[in-house]
Amino acid sequence: MPIALLALAIGAFGIGTTEFVVTGLLPEFEAEFGVSTPTAGFTATGYALGVLVGAPLISVLAGRTARKRLLMTMMGLFTVGNALSAVAPEFWVLLVGRVVSSLAHGAFFGVGSVVAARLVAPARRASAIALMFTGLTVANVVGVPAGTLLGQQVSWRLTFAAIAVVGVLALAGVVALVPAGAGEDPEAGGAPAGGGPRHVRRELAAFRDAQVLLAMAMTVLGFGGVFAAITYIAPMMTDAAGYAESSVSWLLVLLGVGMVIGNLVGGRYADRAPTRMLYVSLAALAVTLAAFTLTAHDRLGAAVSLPLIGAFGFATVPPLQKRILDNAAQAPTLASAVNIGAFNLGNALAAWLGGLVLSAGGGATTPNLVGAAMAASALALAVFGSALERRGRGGADEHRQPRAEPRFLART
Question: Taking Cα atoms as reference points, which of 41, 46, 47 lies closest to residue 26?
């Protein structure tokens, strides 16, 4: 694999760390600025909204920008946002810093997926995308626990300062390791795709493809299923499994280890049989989440289930992101970035639905049923999408106007 993927993975590590580390630092924000817990929680929700808005907006506005330069700009923006958070004198400045850093999130992963896929041969694209996302999964194993510990034991400001340093390293890596012209359209001779209304129409045209829309819906439902469970993992582990609050951290490490393994395995097998990989991972995720409703009441059962949830959940990421790139091959940047936003939309939707069932009087483990239903729905969409694709190919053959078969189905 090209060494340029290391720079993308470092950037993904920093982004993953800053996204999730605030959940463990809310008490520190409350004490520092004298705000309530819900107000402190805006540091998480504000970030999520920034991802949803920033991903498509930056992808459209930066149409004239070469993808390497756009990656550099995103890492610079990410670094500035975290540095601003580290020195924030008031809570609103901290919020601004969070939003600034979040604007880089979706565009970096969206453009990074395109660059990673085009740095390698077509048969290895899912593996390349998975290697970039490995940085995100490792962040949940190393970055988030370390950042939380640093913030709780020393200063939360040092946590954001350390993340800003990671941003500088990622920026330097992109400058030094990512080749000039990486990820650009081969048909344009490696030049940027262009900008203006024509570029916008070209990028938006990808959303007329039913397979692109189906893949985004699968992203919302499939990955959202994971967050229906882990959003409420702390009360689930203490109230249902009987763990002490101090044990939640290492349980989350188990979840993160599963994410790393699932992401790498998903990338490897998505290169060989992406549709089959998607079927297996979504079905296994739905079953595991449903079973977690019961196994979460047992300490050993919970400890075994968490890495499985992480593994099956992240095994869906490479085939889904690759599916977007294959079906939006002529204009992949906006579609890829919007799909990153779809992950966050799924997270927010799952957390909201899980909260509804808890508010309705459900037990501590009932959000797992929400997650199982979401994963099963994503599986149904995957089956429907494949059937739709087969029917389209049959119709094309009947009229002797064969349609180029998307690579994600050609290798299944």
Answer: 41
